[in-house]
Design brief:
Layout (H helix, E strand, L loop, with lengths): L2 E5 L3 H12 L3 E6 L10 E5 L5 H7 L5 E4 L8 H19 L2 E6 L22 H18 L5 E5 L2 E3 L14 H5 L4 E4 L8 E3 H13 L7 E3 L8 H12 L6 E4 L1 H7 L4 H8 L2 H4 L7 H7 L6 H17 L4
Parallel strand pairs: 1-2, 1-4, 2-3, 4-5, 5-6, 6-10, 7-9, 8-11
Length: 315
């Protein structure tokens, strides 16, 4: 039985904890509030991930340290650097493999499918933060100070995902109710969507697979579908009429950004929804023999979870 320490008790961190404990591993799940799944084998601890001393104490004896943290979107520039430095320090001191869950912001706008060997040419401040985190981790790995690997995902969807993502709270309840779904950019542009269970499977695999270390990997991700196609697929799975889908332009986001920092942040990365945004995850599948969940299966499971959630007392 290995000891796994997960930073971040959001959707991915919590589902990773459940996956690992289901495989007989020991799991410590740390977050600011110390919350997480109430399940034997998972110890939830309140820890400030920017405090290397406190995090180091929680990670004592760990084989793998997973960075699944998700700081407030408006505070990435201030919150991520100290957290990343603390995790590098703890990984070096403990000898735990550092597995970081990241996204595709670091590439910036690209022409054609994204592969892991693309340069990190982020144009957004948040993308530059994520790109620098990987550069720092890779430099420490290449210097022999730590062992690390990064797993990159596109926009998430799946059971358990509520307030995060374009196919979460802001979309699925509206689909089930037959209401209009509003999305950024071209609603007919092909876009890659990463299924949460595929993400946690990838995280668990690379943490224990030495051949994966020292480079980034894309989570196995199904062929791209536009937001309109995903909304239609979810409506079909639910047996309801497809909702109308309307796009919000970058210009509108910029105008709203005058009074909303959240809208300014979204305008920075609106390029992801204005043109085809396609992940090539073939390297992971070819190396480890793991493919993405078929999108119709993933959509069906997502809709079923939302129906149960929305029918629960108190909703």
């Amino acid at each position: 039985m290995a000891r796994h320490v997960i930073v971040g008790a959001g959707t991915n961190g919590s589902q990773l904890a459940e996956l690992l404990v289901g495989r007989g591993e020991e799991v410590v799940l740390v977050s600011r509030r110390g919350r997480g799944p109430d399940r034997p084998g998972i110890t939830c601890r309140p820890v400030d991930a920017a405090d290397a001393g406190a995090l180091g104490a929680a990670a004592e004896g760990a084989s793998v340290l997973y960075n699944c943290a998700n700081p407030d979107y408006l505070r990435w520039q201030t919150d991520w650097p100290p957290m990343a430095r603390a995790m590098l320090e703890v990984a070096e001191r403990s000898g735990a493999v550092l597995v970081t869950l990241s996204n595709l912001y670091g590439y910036g706008p690209v022409a054609g499918p994204m592969t892991e060997d693309l340069p990190l040419a982020a144009v957004s401040t948040r993308g530059q933060v994520r790109a620098q985190m990987w550069r720092d981790a890779l430099a420490a790995h290449e210097a022999g100070r730590i062992r690390c690997v990064e797993v990159r995902a596109s926009d998430f969807f799946g059971p358990g995902l509520t307030d995060q993502g374009y196919l979460g709270e802001r979309a699925v309840p509206r689909i089930l109710a037959g209401k209009t779904v509003r999305a950024i950019g071209d609603v007919d542009a092909p876009h890659s969507w990463t299924y949460v269970p595929d993400t946690v499977e990838a995280l668990a695999l690379v943490g224990s697979e030495e051949a994966a270390w020292g480079r980034p990997w894309h989570v196995p991700t199904a062929p791209a579908r536009s937001i309109r196609q995903m909304v239609t697929a979810m409506a079909n799975a639910a047996g309801v009429q497809p909702s109308r889908v309307s796009g919000v332009s970058r210009g509108v986001l910029r105008a709203l950004g005058i009074v909303s920092a959240q809208m300014r942040g979204l305008a920075e990365v609106a390029y992801q929804f204005e043109h085809p945004f396609i992940v090539d995850s073939s390297a992971f599948t070819d190396r480890f023999g793991v493919a993405a969940t078929p999108v119709d299966d993933a959509v069906g499971a997502t809709v079923a979870w939302w129906r149960t959630r929305l029918a629960a007392p108190g909703r």
